[in-house]
Structures are given as C-alpha cells and as structure tokens.
Design a protein that fits this description.
Length: 388
C-alpha cells in the first residue's frame, strides 16, 4: 500500500499534481474534495507558499466600510475586506466604522518599526558572557555591515542585550521595508552570528534563536519594545453621536472601560481591549498575511478619557502588528485583489496597510463594547450568527 503523498520532483505545482493528490485522498479516506479542488488561479503561483498543494480553503469575505482614516500614509475612505466565518463580525465592524466616519475618522500613527531575531551565546561563566557583551557594543557597526550584506531592504537598527547565567542573549532589531521580515532577519542574523563566532574567541556555542524574539507568541517584551509595527489608533467622539449610533452614552462606555481594565488585569491578559484579534485575523486572511502572527499582533493596550464637554476619547495601541504588502502570501491572486481594494499592493504601502488595520480595530472596539452595554451582543448573534 502506498503511504506516500504523490509528488513530482520536476514540477509539483500543476493542476494535474493537485488532482493526483486529491485522488489519493479519496482512495485513502473516501472523502470528496470537490470544493477544495475549485480555484481560479494557476497552481504554479503558489510555489514558495505551500507544499503538496491540493486546492484552497474558501473563507467567505465580507466588506466593511467606508472606513475614514486620518493617517500619515492612509488618508480618506477605505472599504475593508474581512475574511471570516463568524456571523455578526463584519456587521459589527461596519457599525463601528459608521461611528468613526460620523465623528471625522480615526487618527492613526505608526510610531515604531522593528523585527527581531534573538540569538543566545553560551560561555564558560557569567564573566566571559559579560565581556562578550562589551565587545558586541564596541563592534556594532561591523556587525551591522555584515548583517545587512544579506538583504536590500533590511536594516539593523540596534542590538539589545540580556544576561542570564553564563548566557548572553542578543536581540537584533531590524527594519524590513514592506516585508514582514522574519525570514529576512533570520538569514541576516545567522550570517552576523557566524561572523561573530569567527571574530571572538571563547564562545562555547550559540543558538540562532534563544526564544527572546518570541516568534509566533506574544511577550511583555514586545508590548514594551515593539515587534512589527507599533500602531496607535485614536478618535474623539461626541457623546450624542455615540448615543445616536450605538445606543449608549459616552460616560457609560468610559465607566465600563474602568471595570474591564480590572478584569483584564486579574485575568493576566495581554490585551486590555475587547477583541482586536477578530479584526486583525479577518484582514490578515483577506490580504495574505501570516495568520499565525495574530498570536503577537492581537496584543493591545486601550486608553479612554472624557473631556469637559463630555466627548469620549478612545485609543488602542497595537505594539506588535506584523504585516506586509510585499512577499509571502501577499502575492497570491485573491490576496492581491484585496490589497488592491485598499490601495496597499506592492512596495511602499506597508505603513498604509498598518494604519488601515489599526483604524479597523478601533472601530471593532467601539462597536463590541457598545453592543455589550446596550444588550445587542446576544441578540445580534441570534439574528446574524446562527448558521446551524
């Protein structure tokens, strides 16, 4: 019995090979893959994105908007494609976007940009590790030159250092242009580490990642120091407008935030908001981002205030928004269409995309909290989210 998935060593990205694997699946499991096997692009374009290609996962895409963004890169109205199977989600974000638009839009700023690889060097004892750290500080420019020789768009910004036992953890911080950059910085850091190993005597061994880059998982270090784009979305909303569109007052929202901050603290959450992961995941799937990065990107810090006129100020800080408009899954046909809808396809557009996602997340925060307080949360799921 053949237990090996069919492959073609010469050209594995063809419709025939995809069908061969689906036929193999039917033979093994008796399950039809009729819908998986329907797609509109040449399988060749998936090379570098997938192995053992058999078809597509067809996630429904809904449209929310228009979203009004006052960014430094995203300015004006945008229709946001959101890929999800959760009923009410698009409707909720749409409602939040309506409120933001009526209030003059969301002001969004990218305040920091960094992608990391964090190798660890091991020595005989802590003193040797400390001395190595001094050498690193003295040779940063040479290390920078070696690291950047591997990439056109990656730039080594700085190297953080952390000491523990006989180990020295180095956190290389790069800017990566329009790419998310994890693979880019991994290669650049590897070449730099190999150079360091040749230049510095006494290194027992090193690992390319000592886990302080926290790939595909969030950390307090990222909340403080940024991974990907650090995005802040904010808006000032008149109380009467909130009441008209959301059915609650600004003061009610403000007091609710104080209560939920305590709940989030007691739970040990990395997010003091309501559900940033929903909007981020839906836009990530639609635009070809690495969806596993939602583990980091969904962390958020919310802040609310009320001024003397009763206007409600709300901001959400996303410290680790990992997005790209070039490379990876962004080049796939469906994802390219979604990026083009936003005017974010290709080079020079990554901060624009980050600002649009930041504003989208803010809209979702406003809508969900209002729904919870107005009693619409359960009823909306009953009316829009019951696909049984």
């Amino acid at each position: 019995m053949n237990n090996r998935i069919p492959r073609d060593s010469d050209n594995d990205y063809t419709a025939d090979m995809a069908k061969a694997r689906r036929d193999y699946l039917f033979e093994k499991t008796g399950t039809s893959t009729e819908h998986i096997g329907q797609y509109s692009f040449d399988p060749q374009c998936t090379a570098g994105n997938i192995e053992n290609f058999i078809g597509v996962a067809q996630v429904p895409i809904g449209l929310a908007g228009p979203l009004f963004v006052n960014g430094e890169h995203a300015q004006g109205e945008f229709f946001v494609p959101m890929a999800t199977s959760e009923g009410t989600l698009v409707a909720s974000y749409n409602r939040g976007m309506r409120l933001l638009r009526a209030a003059g839009g969301a002001k969004v700023t990218v305040v920091d940009d960094a992608m990391q690889r964090a190798p660890v060097f091991i020595f005989n004892d802590a003193r040797e590790a400390r001395d190595f750290g001094v050498w690193i500080e003295e040779n940063v420019e040479a290390i920078k030159s070696v690291a950047e020789s591997t990439t056109k768009s990656g730039k080594l910004r700085n190297i953080e250092q952390y000491a523990a036992g006989r180990m020295r953890y180095l956190r290389f911080n790069f800017t990566t242009g329009d790419a998310a950059g994890q693979n880019m910085v991994g290669k650049a850091t590897y070449v730099a580490c190999e150079w360091i190993k040749k230049q510095y005597a006494g290194i027992d061994r090193y690992m390319l990642s000592g886990a302080m880059d926290t790939d595909k998982k969030h950390s307090q270090l990222n909340t403080l120091n940024t991974r990907g784009k650090r995005v802040i979305a904010e808006a000032v909303l008149p109380s009467e407008l909130i009441q008209e569109i959301m059915g609650v007052s600004a003061m009610t929202l403000y007091k609710a935030r104080a209560i939920t901050q305590v709940g989030n603290f007691m739970a040990g959450s990395v997010n003091t908001g309501a559900h940033s992961a929903n909007g981020i995941t839906a836009t990530f799937i639609a635009t070809g981002q690495d969806v596993a990065n939602v583990a980091e990107s969904s962390a958020a810090v919310t802040y609310a205030d009320i001024d003397d006129q009763g206007n409600y100020y709300l901001s959400i800080t996303i410290p680790s928004l990992i997005v790209a408009t070039y490379g990876g899954g962004t080049a796939l046909p469906t994802q390219q269409e979604c990026l083009k809808l936003l005017g974010c396809a290709g080079e020079g557009k990554v901060r624009k995309l980050a600002e649009i996602i930041g504003a989208t997340v803010l809209a979702g925060e406003l809508s969900l909290m209002s729904a919870v307080l107005a009693g619409d949360w359960v009823s909306s799921h009953d009316s829009l989210g019951r696909n049984r």
